[in-house]
Amino acid sequence: MTVYGSFPGSRPRRLRTTPAMRRMVAETRLNPADLILPAFVREGVSEPVPIAAMPGVVQHSLDTLRKAAVEAREAGVSGIMLFGVPEDAKKDAVGTAGTDPGGILQVAVRAVKEEVGDELVVMSDLCLDEYTDHGHCGVLDADGRVDNDATLERYAEMAQVQADAGVHVVGPSGMMDGQVGVIRDALDTIGREDVAILAYTAKYSSAFYGPFREAVASSLTGDRKTYQQDPANLRESLRELAFDLGEGADMVMVKPAGPYLDVLAKVAESVDVPVAAYQISGEYAMVEAAAEKGWIERDKAILETLTGIRRAGAQMILTYWATEAAQKLGRA
Ligand code: PBG
C-alpha cells in the first residue's frame, strides 16, 4: 500500500459513527417548548379557508382556531401568535377593527383563552396592516406617507384592547419608531404591567412575506421600505435593539429568520433577554413547494431549518410547522 503524506492525527469522524453518538454530541437540541405557532383567524367564516401559497396553513374559523390551539398545546408548543383577518368591508383608513373590542383578533384571543387558559402563551400581532384599507402598518398623513406618531397613538389603543381581551404578550410588528415605549406606557396606564412585549426588533423589508399577504388578504400596494429595515443592514439592527431594550422590550425578535441568521447571531450575543426568530411565510412556502416537486425531503428540510435557527441563537422560533414539528420531536 502506498501512503500519501501522513495519516491524520485528528479524526472528527469518530464522533459521527452512530446515531446515538451523534445525538450525544449534538450542540443544538430542538424541543417543542422552543416553538410558537402563528395562526390566522378570519372573521365571518364557519369553515377554514386554505391559503394557496402556504399549503397546509389555513385562515381559521373561530372553531378550528380553538382546535388548533388545543392541538398545539397537546404537542408541547409554548405559545400561539394570533393574526386577525377582518371582513373586507370592515377595513378603513385608520384600521378601526384593530381597536374594536368586538374585532376579530380580540374575539379570537378570548376564544383561545377560553380553550387553553394559561397553558399556552397567547400572543397577538399588534399592527394595523390587517385592518387598514390601504394595507400599510400605520395611518397615513395628507401626502399618503405613513405617519409615525399618529400611528403610535393607534398602537397604544390596540395594546390596551388586546390586553383587555386577555393576551399574555403583544407583538408589535409595525416598525414604527418608539412603538415599544408607547405600548409599555399604554399598558401600564391601565394597570397591565403584567402584559409582556415581544419586540420585532429587526424586521426586514422582505420579499419572503409574499404568502403572508394572501394569508391576511392584504390590501397593500407598494412596499414597506420606509419603515421596515433594508436587507443590506446589520448595524442598524443593533441600533434598533438598543432602542427596544431601552423602551422596555421583554423579548426581542429577528424576522425573517433563514436569510438573516447573521443578524440573529449578533442580536443573541448582545442581549440578556429571550431572543425569538420568525420563520416567515416565504420560508415555509419554499420548503413546501420544493418538497411537493420531490426536490427535497420535506421533513428533514423542516428540522434542518429549525435547527439552524436555534443554532444561530434563537431560543424561541415562530414557525407555521410548530405543531407538526413538536409532534415529531415529542414532548421534552
Ligand atoms: C405585519 C406582519 C407581516 C408578517 C407578520 N406581521 C407582514 C409584513 O410585514 O408585510 C409576515 C409574516 C410572514 O410572512 O409569515 N403585521
Automatic annotation (TrEMBL):
InterPro entries named in the record: ALAD, ALAD_AS, Aldolase_TIM
EC numbers on record: 4.2.1.24
Enzyme class: lyase
Record field: catalytic activity: 2 5-aminolevulinate = porphobilinogen + 2 H2O + H(+)
GO cellular component terms, semicolon-separated: cytosol
Pathway: Porphyrin-containing compound metabolism; protoporphyrin-IX biosynthesis; coproporphyrinogen-III from 5-aminolevulinate: step 1/4
GO molecular function: porphobilinogen synthase activity; zinc ion binding
Protein origin, superkingdom: Bacteria
Active site, per annotation: 203, 255
Annotated positions binding 5-aminolevulinate 2: 281, 320
Keywords assigned by UniProt, alphabetized: Heme biosynthesis, Lyase, Magnesium, Metal-binding, Porphyrin biosynthesis
Binding site for 5-aminolevulinate 1: 213, 224
PROSITE patterns named among the record's database cross-references: D_ALA_DEHYDRATASE
SUPFAM superfamilies found in the cross-reference section: Aldolase
Binding site for Mg(2+): 240
UniProt cross-references to CDD domains, sorted A to Z: ALAD_PBGS
BP terms from Gene Ontology: protoporphyrinogen IX biosynthetic process
Function as written in the Swiss-Prot or TrEMBL entry: Catalyzes an early step in the biosynthesis of tetrapyrroles. Binds two molecules of 5-aminolevulinate per subunit, each at a distinct site, and catalyzes their condensation to form porphobilinogen.
PANTHER family for the chain: DELTA-AMINOLEVULINIC ACID DEHYDRATASE (PTHR11458)
Protein family membership: Belongs to the ALAD family.
Assembly with partners or alone: Homooctamer.
Protein name: Delta-aminolevulinic acid dehydratase
Record organism: Streptomyces marianii
